[in-house]
Amino acid sequence: LGDVAVVDYGLAELIKAKVMEILSILIPASLLLGGCGLAAFVWAMKTKQFDDPSGDANRILMKDWDDHPKP
Question: Whole-angstrom Cα distance, residue 47 to residue 52?
Answer without folding.
Answer: 12
